[in-house]
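Run log, item B.
One chain of 309 residues. Sequence copied directly from the ordering sheet:
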Amino acid sequence: MAPPMEPDLGLSSAGRVLSIQSHTVHGYVGNKAAVLPLQLLGFDVDPVNSVQFSNHTGYATVKGDVLDGEQLWALIEGLQANDLLHYTHLLTGYIGSVSFLETILRVVEKLRTVNPNLIYVCDPVMGDDGEFYVNPELVPVYREKVVSVATMLTPNHFEAEQLTGRRIETEAEALAACIDLHAAGPSKVVITSLSIDNMLTIVGSHVQSRGKSPEQFKIAVPKLHSYFTGTGDLMTALLLGWSHKFPDDLDKAAELAVSSLQAVLNNTIANRSKTGASPEPKPEQLELRLVQSVDDIRSPAARFPAVKL
């Protein structure tokens, strides 16, 4: 018997996102940091968990399972068998192995046979602060295969250096790295964390059409002297959401994404103060306060203006 048809309530969706990244039972990283914000911004989200861990790796103990490439492809085949591969966006984050990343490439190809206009937003999670937290063997796969099929790329400072082979120490070098990445494929590039002059700088670049020079900008925010986990995952999800609303205005989308992220971090710090701040906060005290920040995610006040370059 066919399932009953859902009633048409006249509700529209911004789109449907297939989000493939990590998952934790407790806390907000990976899909746990991305799904709720995207839903608040009007998207239907289908999450696939590349790993399922008890908590993030900043805790003393981590337990859980890792999805392999064959298991990922089995999920895609199940969706295809039921004619459910209709996605406007693909979002990828933490990928732990070369074989899984190679399967992601197959997923991109498959989804684009259904929707040639699929937007692929790739957060090339590899490491931070000069250190890898994935196998370095993933770097050439990202550089030589993944970047070329991405629509938007959101590396941090370290990851941008790995993808371009450039040392990035100045704003000008970051902008040049964006141009290198445009030449490899994506029309939108946002380097999400560039440390310059004790400020955290976000550098963005958008090629509106082939042959044109990119429109570039920066957003500076004060450094917060705490270490949070899941901020890159949240930032990329917010960039996806707001750039869908403002497809030709990446700087506007980035202003809104940054403002939401900073509000979440400030809410997290405020909660830590309430629970008794210590010189060395416990990991659970710095878990992102997403649920307490829903208004800041849905309707952020743009407090950090983009400066066109």
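Observations after the first pass:
- The CA atoms of residues 276 and 285 lie 9 Å apart.
- Residues 16-273+284-308 form a domain with the UDP-N-acetylmuramoyl-L-alanine:D-glutamate ligase fold (CATH 3.40.1190.20).
Flagged for discussion on Thursday.
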